[in-house]
Structures are given as structure tokens and as C-alpha cells.
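Changelog note: in this version the structure field was regenerated for every chain. One regenerated record is shown below for reference.
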Amino acid sequence: MEESQIDVFNFDPIRPYNDEELKAAIERILEVPEFYKMLKWVFPGLSRAAIQKMLRQVTTVDEFQSEISGPAFKMAIQTTTSGLSFTNFESLDKTKPYLFLSNHRDIILDSAILNVSLLEQGHKTTQIAIGDNLLRQKVVEDIVRSNKNFIVNRNVNAKEMFYYSLRLSNYIRHTLTQDHTSIWIAQREGRAKDGFDRTDPALLKMLLLAYRDEESPISALLAQAQIVPVSVSYEVDPCGTKKAEELVAIARDGEYQKAEHEDLQSMILGLMGYKGRVHLSFARPIDNVGDVEQLTERLDKDIVSNYRTFPTHRYAAKTLAGSQDREDVSTDKALVALKADLAACGDDEKTNLLQQYANVWENRKALGID
């Protein structure tokens, strides 16, 4: 691709849908049967025709969030968790845009829980980064771009990557400063399927591209929007067995081929599956740091140290160590769920699933966190 073909200030290919684009997106969404499965769960008393009518009455992106996706995420919190808790939520200023840099365990729920919580506390919702590798089906793109998601282009060659990254960085800067809207972005590409939460320095370098002409790019970024490290912790991962199957296949075959609509099905499973307790922790906002290396280290330590551990993590670690001193799984709902997932796995997948939970301790140890 020639350089002139990439306009690094043309955000139309990556931005969320605007209100004018929403109607056509809704019509496309209504053609996909999997979407009805989720909406029937959220609105059990409505017929298919009533659901169609309800969606066709939605005319703005804000309405889509408040009347469709918002209720879906609230339903998920109310019916598939054993409670949602927070640390340092009150430290967020409603008048400021933030750059939320988060660990990443679930395709949509990590950021969705944040947005629902912000909305309920009187804050504006964030715009959300999502990789184009998850948008293989048009319906997924329609759903997420109707819900204030913007696209991160991943499937590009090295020559193209700089310009796509620069456009993305320009878009994030524009959103933070011109639109005065917060951004949520994961600390690295893809979910941490092995349980290790680590920040990719390349992500931070991308964020700084829009400030590359400033005397100190990192200071210029932080002067416009503080970075808030976010840790989202789940007692049970509904997609844990699927992650185990994928990682075992990659280790065995060198690759994993996703089935059609697999990402959409993972989104639905993450939304509707049991998660136990969920905790969202906000570290102290970062407003002064020397360089990318220092920022990476700060993010890793804040995110990992604030990750809340649950009995499921302890049970997994003790099981892998061969300890007989384990929690009683007969009365704890989350441990019962984990044990059921383990029973459904083959030997290799079972070990991998246990490691997903137990690696929280290895993660802390590697970073020198007590």
C-alpha cells in the first residue's frame, strides 16, 4: 500500500458508528439468530417481533447503550456473578477524560463492566478498543461499533503498520482532547489466556506516536489525560475451558483454527456464563513517568498487585502442587463451577485450565509482589 493511500487523520474506517449509521447496522444485526439468544435472555418476556420493534425504535448510539447493551450487561452482573466490588472508584473525577489501561480476560465484559459502573456513578462512558481480528463476522463489527468501540487494525504487514498505528494514535488523542471522552484499551493484544497480565511496550509506543513531535511525548500525553491502570478480576472464567482447548491445540499443532462465529459465541458465553465474584480495581492515576520502560513497569505492578485472588485461584495452585489441603468444593458455588469445568476437560486441557487460575501467583512472584 502506498503511503498516500493511508490518511492518518481519516478516522471513518475505525471510529464507532454515528447515529446516522446505526439504523442500517441494526437491520443487519436483526438477521443473525445468535443475537436473539442474547436478547431473549435479557428481555425474556418479549417475542421475536417485539424485540425487532424495540431495536428499530432505537435511533442513537447513546440509546443503543442505555436501552440494549446496558441492560444486557446489567443482567450479566446481576444474574451471572456473586457480586461486583470496587477499589478506588471514588478517586475518578467526573470532569476528566482518562486513558484506562486494563488487563484483559473477557472479549467484551472487561470494558462493559467498567462502562456500566461509570454510567451508574454519573460518569460518561468510555470508547473501547477492539482488534479487527475479532471482527471476522459483520454482525460482530455492527454490535461493537454500535456500542462505542473503535477498531485496532492488526492484520497488516510491517510496512503498513506504522501508518495504521499513527492513525490509531491520532484518533485516541483526538477522542481524549477534542471529544473529552475517556478511552479503554487492553494492556496488550488479545486476552491473557494463560493468566499472565503483562503490558506490551509496543502498545505504549503506539499511543505516543501522535505526540512524537513534542519535546517529551510521554509528558505531553499525560498532560492531556492521566493513565489509570485497571485490574478486573473474575472468580470463575466462563471461557476458561475454551481458552484451554485453544492453548493446547497451539502447543500441539502450532496453530488453532477458529470455527465460524466462534468469537461471537465466546462473547455470548462470557456474558451469560457464571463468573462468581468480580472485582474492579483502579490504581492511582499516572500523571508523571520518565519513559516507556518505566511506564510498562508501573502498569504491570499496579495491575498485577491489584488483581484480587479468590478461592478458585488457591484451589488451582494447590491442585497443581499435589496438595491435599484444599478448599471444600461441595459448598462453594465458584469452586463447584471450576470443578465442573475441570471434569469436562481432557488431561492436557485440565492442566492448562488449572494453570490459568494458578498463574496469578506466578505472575506476582515474577514481579516481586508479596
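Spot check on this record: The CA atoms of residues 22 and 116 lie 21 Å apart. The radius of gyration is 21 Å.
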